[in-house]
Design goal:
The complex is a heterodimer of chains A (175) and B (134). Chain A has a single domain, classed as Glutaredoxin, CATH 3.40.30.10. In chain A, 37% of the residues lie in helices and 19% in strands. Chain A has 5 helices and 7 strands. Chain A has a 5-stranded mixed β-sheet with strand order 5-4-3-6-7. A two-stranded antiparallel sheet of chain A has the order 1-2. In chain A, helix 3 links the parallel strand 4 and strand 5. Chain B has 5 helices and no strands. The longest helix of chain B is centred in the C-terminal third of the chain and has 25 residues. The chains are: A alpha/beta (175), B mainly alpha (134). Chains A and B meet through helix 1 and helix 2 of A and helix 3, helix 4 and helix 5 of B.
């Protein structure tokens, strides 16, 4: 029996290394999951005189989409967000990251605005507090303001329909 | 090709930030603060260019994070506070020193465990094959 111990350790090690070999190192788990969304006080792209704080994110399940006008991937997927925004009982909020007000406004007026409002984070403070690594990124925040999900990179239709939107609906059921 | 915002890693010009250079870009009133800053950015990872520290990486995210850490050093915060700041935002991966907790138990104790098992197995084999009465 004892002679199988080295073999089983070897097999275990090979299995472990094989698994990590195929893991995506860029798949960094978000440190925010399960935590309250960070505090902020930002104006919006739509109305520079309006100040919004973190309490705005509470009460409803919110899909927070991080984008920038200089991000070409965001441009390519913008029409998908226009489409997603038509889904019932969905609260879609934008987070405009490291951008200028003019560019951001131009973007929304020329391509359409799928967002209830867009937080204007020109210095990237809120983006940093969310631990974002680049645009686009998408967060789901529950009714209590707790970050429940993070999606890095562009969202495609099947991911949205099969995973993300069902999760939003699931969170809607929570009290 | 579609360019995703921010995470590109500068591979052509990725010089290591020397202490002299760092002092040029980041002026410090006290040399201890310069030392503290250099120490911290040298042991935190850029989560976009994962084989580079924050000191080495020129990815926009690393530059941004470096600036924030600089502000904190100047504000007089401690090493532990600053590293905690980075960890709450970018997770355990941000530290080149893995934490010692439940999820890293195998990482820390695995080599020791393997050594013990190998040693036990070795001694047992030796004892079996070198009996004096054989």
């Amino acid at each position: 029996m004892a002679r199988f111990i080295p073999l089983s350790i070897f097999v275990l090690l090979v299995g472990l290394l094989w698994k990590t070999l195929h893991a995506d190192p860029m798949e960094v788990p978000s440190a925010r999951i399960g935590l309250q969304s960070p505090a902020f006080q930002l104006s919006t792209v739509e109305d520079p005189n309006r100040l919004v704080t973190e309490s705005f994110l509470e009460g409803n399940v919110t899909v927070l989409h991080v984008w920038s006008s200089w991000c070409t991937t965001c441009r390519e997927t913008h029409q998908l967000w226009m489409e997603f925004s038509k889904q019932p009982s969905l609260r879609l909020v934008g987070l405009n990251y490291f951008d200028t007000l003019g560019d951001a406004q131009e973007w929304l007026s020329s391509q359409g605005n799928p967002f209830e409002l867009t937080l204007f984070d020109s210095k990237g403070d809120l983006g940093l507090d969310f631990g974002i690594q680049g645009t686009p990124e998408t967060f789901i925040i529950d009714k209590k303001g707790i970050v429940r999900y993070r999606h890095k990179g562009p969202m495609d239709r099947s991911e949205w329909q099969e995973q993300v939107y069902p999760f939003v609906q699931h969170l809607d059921q929570e009290s | 090709m579609a360019r995703t915002g921010l995470p590109f890693c500068a591979t052509l010009r990725s010089g290591v930030l020397s202490l002299d250079q760092a002092t040029d870009i980041y002026p410090f009133a006290h040399p201890e603060q310069a030392k503290q800053f250099h120490n911290i950015v040298g042991k935190l990872r850029c989560t976009v260019c994962q084989n580079q520290t924050l000191a080495e990486s020129n990815a926009p995210l690393a530059i941004d994070l470096r600036d924030r850490l600089y502000q904190q050093v100047v504000a007089g915060r401690s090493d532990a506070q600053i590293i905690e700041f980075a960890r709450t935002r970018y997770g355990d991966l941000v530290s080149y020193d893995p934490l010692f907790d439940g999820s890293t138990l195998l990482l820390w104790l695995g080599p020791l465990l393997l050594t013990v098992v190998a040693l036990m197995w070795f001694l047992k084999t030796v004892r079996l094959t070198h009996r004096p009465d054989r």
